[in-house]
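Tutorial, part two.
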Amino acid sequence: MTHPTDFPRDPARPALPEHLRTALWLAELGLPVMPLRAGKQPFGNCRACTRSACGGRPHMLAAGSCVCPAPCHAWAAATTKPDVLTSPAWAGAWRQSAAVAYHPGGVGLTVVDLDDAEAVAWARQNLPTTKTVPTTRGEHWIYRGTLRSVNGVRPGVDLKSTMAYAQWRGPGTGTIKPLPDVVRALAVKQPSVVRPAPCIVTATAPAGVGECRHRSPAYLERGIAMAEQRIKEAAAAIHTTVYRTFLAVLSAHGQCGCLAQAHIDRLFTAAQEKGESLRHCEDAWSNAVTKLGM
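Running the prediction step on this input gives:
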């Protein structure tokens, strides 16, 4: 099939951004697509969603159900509609886009994201062959079938299907095969990759301005421990869980100044062990602080 970049330009129309042309081609093939900014992050173009201020509400939506005027809600904004992709509301995102992403679960696919050479070697020994796409550090193995998306199911391996997006890196080689049981089994296991918190966490506790409700250190310790457990036990909607947990901790313990850096480090560690990136943790913390007006 001819890629849209091969078509001669219509002099009556302004040239479309390269990533938009790719997105229109993929949409024609039936893939729900969306733009990505640098760092493989989705755009947030309305005030309610900028920097994930919405708390990750796409996890509460059905695919393609984002109702904002721009691609604010990550995978939920992915679409196959050319009129949406080329609408003025999306124009700024496409001009700034660094890549194109698609929603695998929205078209009945699962992407096994192999992040390094060791993960690729494991896949070649343990998974049935299917369509493979080379990535910067590893490969995407694409299967027909859907499951819940889970990060860190084993070292260097993420599963991207429902409520997730994968970066488009080309058509790849091979034939897509049905989703094997060995991959389905990975989705129901607890993540085996422990991602330690980085040495430097830039989030800080708000300065205390309210009355202290902590009659003993045990009250605060119990609150932090419960928050850690809530994050660790989250089976889905990790972004939402992390944001809401941070919000609850700040609401209960952030007004009086008792919340220390060590407590924040513990929360960030729990979130990163569930697959959250440092940036997502910092965004969630900042948004919770802003939400509470601290």
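The radius of gyration is 21 Å. In part three we will examine how such features are distributed along the chain.
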